[in-house]
Amino acid sequence: RRGASGRDLVAAVAIGNELSSRVGSVAPGEMHRRGFHPTGIFAPFGTAWLAGFLERSTADQMRHAAGIVGSLASGLIQCWADGTQTKFLHPGWAAMSGIVATGLSRGGVTGPAEIFEGRFGLFESHLQDGNSDRDLDRLTRGLGSTWDSLDASFKPFPAAHVIHPYIDALLRLKERSALVPGAVRRITCRVAPYIVGIVCEPAAEKRRPATDSQGRVSLQYTLAEAFALGRLGRTSYSEQSLRDPQILGLADRVAYEVDESLPGPGQFKGVVRVELGDGTSLEEIEEHNRGSRENPLSEADIVAKFRENVDGAIAPDHADRLVEAVLSAERLDDASAITGLTVANG
């Protein structure tokens, strides 16, 4: 609508990612612990600044947009309890909220200036028990010179991010030692305390997820399916897999041990030990999750994930054109060359 260039688009995405990351870094892990989905809570702010940049909003308009979007930021994870699908709405709702807030601010609607630090602001309202550590200086410290979003991780697997290092460690053990499910007596994961309530407990629910949504936040089930099938991708967590006796039997043999020495949310580290029926014990450590800054995915890895995700939705030659447009975004005179490709299948 604004005739933005590809360079403008890249800059807008960089701004949105950076500010979402900074809002999320004020109190790492605290939202999850209280039943909120961080994407739904933090990403609306980044999107509001992204949209404000593209709309060329004034500083006052951007400030009001941030205040407005604070009332639109939402994302409860009660859906984890029964396996329903509302978590999947949160990224799109966050994007829409930021765009709407920007439009409202440009139309003269006002929003509170102290949306983060105020007595009824984001953190005081959502972290009311007084047991959270928060650092509001994270919002602005080094802003414009230090890019915290460069430390954000891509996700190679369609599962809760904290499970990723365990998946890779287990699949390496499986391949290296040619392991089969029947030979495994027990799989034990050493986990940081903060992930227990997210992906480990309640154990009965995690071992028998009712739906794909519930499976994606289960350490026990996810490792069982990944080990049994040798992969985890777009077609995982199918109804057939969720009822597969071999996978479920293996899920019953996945356990966890809390290890206080493991790092917090700033580093996803996984330690997996596989005990075989003959008494052999094998251990593998993933120091940094694949996709992190320390263990990055290649451009080819990311493109391959995109192609897998759109397989069956858009034609391969159309996917090729979209990949080419995105990878050359900075050289485009008109960013709608990308957005047009996302809604057409010509």
Mind explaining what this structure looks like?
With 346 residues, this protein is an alpha+beta fold. It contains 17 helices and four strands. It has helices at residues 6-24, 30-33, 38-55, 59-70, 79-82, 90-106, 122-126, 164-177, 196-200, 203-207, 212-215, 219-229, 239-242, 245-251, 299-310, 316-327, 336-343; strands spanning 184-191, 254-258, 270-276, 281-286. Strands 2-1-3-4 form a four-stranded mixed β-sheet.
Q: Would you summarize the structure shown here?
A:
With 346 residues, this protein is of the alpha+beta class. Helices cover 47% and strands 8% of the residues.
Overall pLDDT score: 95
How many helices does DSSP assign?
17
The count of DSSP E runs of length 2 or more, i.e. the number of strands, is 4
Class per helix and strand makeup? alpha+beta
Q: What is the gyration radius calculated from CA atoms?
A: 22 Å
Strand order of the largest sheet: 2-1-3-4
User: Would you identify the regions where 5 or more consecutive residues have pLDDT less than 50?
Assistant: none
Order of helices and strands: HHHHHHHHEHHHHHHEEEHHH
Overall geometric form: globular
Separation, N- and C-terminal Cα atoms: 22 Å
Tell me roughly what share of residues is in helical segments: 40-55%
Strand content: 5-15%
* Main sheet makeup: 4 strands, mixed
